[in-house]
Write a structure and sequence with these properties.
Oligomer: single chain
Number of helices: 5
Helix content: 10-25%
Structural class: alpha+beta
Low-confidence stretches: 7-11, 40-44
Amino acid sequence: MTTAPPALLSPSSLFSLPPAEVEARLADPARLARGLGEAGDDAPEAAIRRSAVLVPVILHPEPAVLLTLRAATLSAHAGQVAFPGGRIEPGETPEAAAIREAAEEVGLDPRLPRIAGRLPAMVTGTGFHVIPVVALLDPPVTLTPEPAEVAEVFEYPVSRLMDPASPERRHGVFGGRAREFWAWPHETQVIWGATATMLRSLALALRDN
């Protein structure tokens, strides 16, 4: 499949950034460091597993972030919105792991991502220490999702990340515990949890304030 520019969700042009400006802002290490890595529920140190995800920004005329919907048959986080990613293998850098996982999950050509840098790492409640690796992609981007891992690939407009009213802070009960979490608006998907937190870090890197 070849990705196409996403249908813009309102608001659109009010918060849009041209591709060159998105690229320039993401090339600034100080901007990438703005986000705060967030810890999930406490996990024993021995259970923490190092992993990396690719945060792909496609430089359409209206730039967008590539996201996946995990397959419903997976043993962990089934049916959730995520970035391509997984465990860092021995001897791998986070960048190499993120690119490898993206190739395995969505068929992204490993030669295409241009690494911009890293967003702040975070620890999830499931015991993963996640390093988000931001990569720039020039369109068109052709993908072949692995159906055993990915049910759908879709794009989230950068203009939505620029909206100061987003994301929302929500409350819920998970595993008998009350939790607060970030959630980004979308017409058909629920974007929350670690993915929403990483999108928030990306938004803080892109925004002026």
